[in-house]
Design brief:
The chain is of the alpha+beta class. It has 5 helices and 7 strands; from the N terminus they run E-E-E-E-H-H-H-E-H-E-H-E.
Amino acid sequence: MYRIGNGFDAHKFVRNKKLILGGIEIDHDHGLSGHSDADVLSHAICDALLGAVNAGDLGKHFPDTDIRYKNISSLILLKKASEILTKSQYEIVNIDSTVICEKPKLSEYIYKIQDSISKTLNISSQQVSVKATTTDQMGFAGREEGIAAQAVVLIKKMDEKNIKKD
């Protein structure tokens, strides 16, 4: 049995914070505002994974009112979302994601980001697609006010031999 999930996230730029995408620090003069490290790409993937197994969203599991998640690496949240997927007896087939921003240009970081996400999820980097696009200077991303990301995941029910027994 296969299922699809999609996720979307957006954060505004702020000064004096590192820009993190897919767990990788990106060279830029602004970071993103958020309770955690504000990694919009990891957040979009988390929401896609959680949605695929009808487990709610990022805010349900990791609320911004909980001090435990203040400045936390979103890769930790991504790992926890994948554990929820595993408990539901599903595994990732592939992830397709897009980061939406005018700047910074991300082409030199794409493979590092894919590798970071695949290692966090314990899957092949061939199962993780990360793309970047602009909005031709339209909207908040086009005005360089922030970054958005979207993700789609395909998951499948685990084979009986892959299901871990407690």
